[in-house]
Specification:
This is NAD kinase. One of its GO terms (biological process) is NAD+ metabolic process. By secondary structure, the chain is of the alpha/beta class. The protein has five helices and 16 strands. The protein binds NADP nicotinamide-adenine-dinucleotide phosphate (NAP). NADP nicotinamide-adenine-dinucleotide phosphate (NAP) binds next to helix 2 and helix 4.
């Protein structure tokens, strides 16, 4: 078993990283940053996003495991005091592989067409203020958006930026994408649907901005600045991310713990 490890870089995550390497060496696991079977992230969801983007070209063959060090840790299901158990299971047990949908974003400009994969979401904002962009669903005009921006999220990204915008939380076994608005302008002159929209896997949406408008394009935690964008095609990717589960994990427990708390209040 070859593994790669990324940590958040803070003292606790670095210390846990060192511990992991020693425990793994004792169990005969081999560190390999180039072509690992398993990618571990120690930190939070932000660290797992970085790990995903570092290994996205190998996403069809690697599996991911997250250890969280105190933050939200939606993708990280192991606690800091469970490293020895985790290493033992990695060395001895075949994990259950759980696959989550990813987003594919194709950005078409005058000179190029570039494809990106996102684990959480794709975000579009204007550099200069109000974003004006047409939204087409399955090649039919749907609405003309005016406002602060648009977030297209994956099911597992639905608990991230999307949730802060009032979007629905979607179970990652549902293959689809969600379009959420950031502060759309709605009045007698300008009108958008105003609620988030969930598309199934066989649908796609295109965002058509003014090519003269400079844009901020967010792919998870990464932000690029672009001009000359003619259209952005968003769909559920063919590829999926694989998580190695060495013990049961319940998505809805994670949602409750992260957003409601684990109090025992009864109705
Ligand atoms: P960050 O601004 O340092 O952290 C954003 C927060 O979002 C962290 O608490 C992070 O958890 C959490 N998070 C990330 N992915 C999540 C998910 N799938 N479900 C629930 N929470 C999640 O940025 P970052 O650490 O580089 O993460 C980038 C992500 O931040 C983006 O993909 C976006 O989803 C989110 N974001 C949210 C808002 C908002 O809610 N207004 C605005 C911008 C970006 P950890 O603490 O465990 O890392």
């Amino acid at each position: 078993m070859k593994y790669a490890l990324l940590d958040r870089g803070d003292p606790l995550s670095r210390e846990l990283s060192e511990q992991f390497h020693s425990l793994a060496a004792a169990k005969g696991l081999t560190p390999d940053d180039t072509s690992p079977d398993l990618v571990l992230s120690i930190g939070g969801d932000g660290t797992l996003l970085q790990a995903f983007h570092r290994y996205r070209d190998q996403v069809k063959r690697v599996a991911f495991v997250g250890v969280h060090t105190g933050h939200l840790g939606f993708y990280a299901d192991w606690q800091k005091n469970e490293l020895a158990e985790l290493v033992e299971l990695i060395a001895t047990k075949e994990p259950r592989e759980v696959k989550y949908p990813l987003l594919q974003i194709e950005i078409i400009s005058d000179t190029s067409a570039t494809s990106y994969l996102a684990l959480n979401e794709f975000t579009l904002k204007s550099v200069d203020g109000t974003l004006v962009a047409g939204i087409n669903i399955n090649d039919e005009p749907f609405e003309m958006f005016r406002g602060d921006g648009i977030v297209i999220s994956s099911p597992s990204g639905s608990t991230g930026y999307n949730k802060s915008l009032g979007g629905a939380v979607i179970h990652p076994s549902i293959e689809g994408l969600q379009i959420a608005e950031i502060a759309s302008i709605n009045n007698r002159v300008y009108r958008t649907l105003g609620s988030s929209v969930i598309l199934p896997k066989h649908h796609h949406c295109d965002i058509v901005p003014d090519p003269e408008e400079p844009l901020f394009v967010g792919i998870d935690h990464l932000v690029l600045q672009m001009t000359g964008v003619r259209s952005i095609i968003c769909r559920v990717a063919q590829e999926k991310i694989t998580f190695a589960r060495y013990r049961p994990y319940t998505f809805w427990n994670r949602v409750r713990e992260a957003f409601i708390g684990s109090g025992t209040d009864k109705v």
